[in-house]
Structure formats: structure tokens, C-alpha cells
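Hi Q.,

Before the meeting this afternoon, I wanted you to have the zinc ion prediction in hand. No need to reply - just skim if you have a minute. The sequence and ligand are here:
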Amino acid sequence: MRPSLLAALALAFLAAPAAAKEWGDAKRPTPGPARLIGGPANGCIAGAAALPVDGPGYRAVRLSRNRIWSHPQTVAYVKKLGAAVDALGLPPIYVGDLSQPRGGPMSFGHASHQNGSDADIWFNLDPKPDLPPAAREEIAITDLVRPDERGIDPARWRPAHAQLLRTAAGFAEVDRIFVHFAIKKELCGSVAGDRAWLRKIRPWRGHTEHFHVRLACPADSPDCTPQPAIAAGDGCDASLNWWFLDAEERRKLEPKPRPPAVPRPKLPAACAAILKAP
Ligand SMILES: [Zn+2]
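Predicted structure with the ligand bound:
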């Protein structure tokens, strides 16, 4: 594991509120209509639906985590993406974490995935053995980025990975998709023709073996907090180059002191009732 990913994971663990265990202990969703409440990093879900663990073009993995729950829009999205992958003639994709049965903070692994807007899709496009769900805890990882993080690993990156990302970004409900910045750079340099979809592909750290899809708030969830708008353009610009600068180069770009960090907003009050509901 590369140091930056370790650091990000450590931060995620440190940031996990003490209440995270309670949310992980809620093994079933609340009954009633599905509603997303709050934001991806401070939210919860009422009436979550489960993703069927197998479907055309996809296989859910690491089922012991019990994170196959989400809003029906997200469940439907994963099914549609699987069907599209199948139609392209690609092997099935592995689907990682969606959310917990009632969403909320997680005791390990993520700061987001709390309000049913997020889904992790693995990049692994190798043909896959037809494993029973219990055998999908330890799965083959395809790390697409070189250890120095300056670019993709040409021995592993394939045009099909770009095809997969273009397909995943092509659904209207997708707000954005997070990938490692080296993957974004590769797309910026190689995608020909229609490049409009690149705007939704956002550079981040980690995300070398999976990408993280974030959907827009569904119409039935007025208490879902929308994400800030993405800047215009394909994002193949200075905002991408920033990721490749060292600390000194970044300091030169930011001569003014940074504003104080804003504490993470608390969970919306409505989430307390969702956690306590029978
Ligand atoms: Zn994720």
C-alpha cells in the first residue's frame, strides 16, 4: 500500500465518530419509503434497498461488511452499469461498498458512503471465476497506477478501463466519479472525440484499484444535501496538474495563509430517529 493511501486511511479512521459502531450494528434498513438525508460524509438513509449480490455484468464482493444497501436509485444504477458492461462484452465488474442498512458513518474504510449516494466499482476487468458469495471476501486487486503515482501502469491499464469509466459516467444521475489523479491524467491525454464526460471524472488520491461513483440527490429526497457544482470544462488543466506538484510548488501557488479548517458538519437531526427506529 502506498504511503498516501495509508495516510488517507489513517485519517478516515481517526475521523470516524464514536457513533460509527452503532450505525454498523444496525443490521436492517428502516421500513417505509426511501429517503436520503444529509450529505455523503454526514448523512443517513431511510428505507434503503439491498443490491442483489449477483446480476448481469456485476458481482457484489466483501459481503460480510453488509454494505450493499442504498437508495433504490443507486441500486438501479449498479444494475444498469452491470447490464451495460455485459452488453459491451466485458467480464463482470466487482461492486464494493455502497452503504450500511441505515447509512451513517462507518467504523472503517470511508468517510463518505453515508447517505446512499456512493458506490465503489472495482477496475478489475479480468475474466472472473464464478465464486459463491462467501468466497468473495479476498478478491483479486488490479492496481492501475505506478508506485511513484506519476502515471498509470502501462502493463495493467487497458482501453477497456477508459470504456468502463465512460460508460459509468454516461448515466444522467451520476454527479461525479472519483479516480486517482494519474488515471484522470491518462484519460486527459488519450480520450479522443467526445470529451464532455471527462468533466465528471474527478482526480483524487487512492482510487487506484476502484473508482467511486457519486450520484446526484434523487427527486424524492429533499433533505439530501447536493454536492457543490463542478467547474466548467473537462478538468484537464491546472487543477489536475496541482496533484503532481510537490509541497514547495504548491506553497508557491498559495501565498496566502489557508483559511482555518471547517469542522465536519454534524449528522442531521433526522438521522438520530432513523438510527433508533426498530
Ligand atoms: Zn468509495
